[in-house]
Amino acid sequence: MSFVPQIALATAGEDLGQRLYEALARTGFVVVTDHGIDLSRLHDAYAAVEAFFALPEEEKLAYVVGRDGQRGYTAFGREHAKDSPAPDLKEFWHVGRDAIAPNVWPERPKSFSREVAWLYEALDELGLKLLRALTGPLEVPADTFDEIAEGGNSVLRLLHYPPLSQDADPASIRAAAHEDINLITLLVSASASGLELLDRDGTWRAIEAPADAVIVDTGDMLARITNDHLPATTHRVVNPEGPNGSRYSMPFFLHPRPDAKLAVFDQFKDGSEAPDITAGEFLRQRLEAIGLK
Ligand SMILES: O=C(O)CCC(=O)C(=O)O
Ligand SMILES: [Fe+2]
């Protein structure tokens, strides 16, 4: 039995919210199976993403948009975790909602925009469904997350961790320990192992999930509005110990709309809570801390 609880979405029924809540409160992660996302289409999306990262570096660099990396391409070695000076060993592509900031799309491969836009919508829908299920145990109105996150500033990150190079900074790992900034993150299973969570007892534990599962974790925004009743979970991606191949993964960071207020739910207020802040301002502060602003 894996350390992280697993929930089959299609058959969870009425228990879904409570089981999600307990899993996230206990480990900060939950593995969701039978989630309804079309697996053959997911395979096509992965193929398009791999084909993009295989392009020459100059071609990819043509898709760097501004400095904050919220759309298009971010080159290898550019981002570091909030408390880590050494850069992560990754390159990535960000897709978001056009109404908030227009996307850019690569010329090649041709299928990229179609497959990636499809995946964005599918994960957005699944994420809101999970958040809606959490409203029961959180004892907040059922439309709470629709109010703040429908049409939100969510970002799908397509990640490539290249094979480890001899001259990589010895202080760097694929993704240094961090917490995600957003409400929840949905990760369609990665192409290789390496993802670890920091257990509440201080132990790093590998996250195991079936290849067709979606891994869900809590971010800082959910921690903030629940006054840490659902704490954000520290996680990292370690370097490969076996074969030195590429690793691909696709986290979807579910964000509120930038103007939505992050206010602690009344029943979690105890005098220690953080002040209200807009999701946009919270994000700006955090992007600055990871070298992207
Ligand atoms: O690559 C992964 O499996 C996780 C990546 C991650 O944690 C992140 O980009 O925030
Ligand atoms: Fe993360």
TrEMBL record:
Q: What class of enzyme is it?
A: oxidoreductase
| Highest taxon in the source lineage | Bacteria
Keywords on record: Dioxygenase, Ethylene biosynthesis, Iron, Metal-binding, Oxidoreductase
All copies of the Fe2OG dioxygenase domain together span: 151-256
**Does the record carry Nuclease as a key word?**
no
* PANTHER family in the record: 2-OXOGLUTARATE (2OG) AND FE(II)-DEPENDENT OXYGENASE SUPERFAMILY PROTEIN-RELATED
Q: Identify its protein family.
A: Belongs to the iron/ascorbate-dependent oxidoreductase family.
Task: Tell me the protein's name.
Answer: 2-oxoglutarate-dependent ethylene/succinate-forming enzyme
Protein species of origin: Parvularcula dongshanensis
Supply the source organism's classification.
Bacteria, Pseudomonadati, Pseudomonadota, Alphaproteobacteria, Parvularculales
